[in-house]
Write a structure and sequence with these properties.
With 120 residues, this protein is of the alpha+beta class. The protein has one domain (28-118). Helix content is 19%, strand content 51%. The strands form two sheets. It has a seven-stranded antiparallel beta sheet.
């Protein structure tokens, strides 16, 4: 079996690894695809209709989100990543109508991912 010295060493290793586990949990990056059938605006960027690769990287709730269309960067904007209550079945984008009639991107959700990306 384990000696008390071995148990103490294992407990110490476990305790020292906890901050690394927390850091791994706090750092989230990912990517997905989203199809916009209409022009939307995110920040000051206009995203024309098309299928975009969306990439995000965060070390906290704040994130950088990059939209790529046919491999070219179309927008790079700040956002917040939040854990969603549940996974969604389909990709979704939520927009709001600006006073000038433009569709402003507010939230992205991706199937099989339990996050939501929120744009200010």
């Amino acid at each position: 079996m384990f000696s008390s010295k071995n148990l103490m060493v294992m407990a110490l290793i476990f305790l020292l690894s906890l901050p690394l586990l927390a850091l791994a949990e706090a750092t989230e990056s990912g990517s997905a695809r989203i199809n916009f059938s209409n022009t939307v605006f995110v920040g000051s960027n206009e995203l024309k209709p098309g299928v975009y690769n969306v990439e995000w990287q965060t070390n906290s709730p704040e994130a950088t989100v990059i939209f790529k269309l046919k491999g070219a960067v179309a927008a790079k904007v700040p956002a917040k990543i939040e854990k969603a209550d549940q996974k969604v079945e389909y990709d979704a984008s939520m927009t709001a109508k600006a006073a000038d009639g433009r569709d402003i991107l507010k939230t992205l959700r991706f199937s099989k991912k339990q996050i939501k990306i929120i744009f200010e």
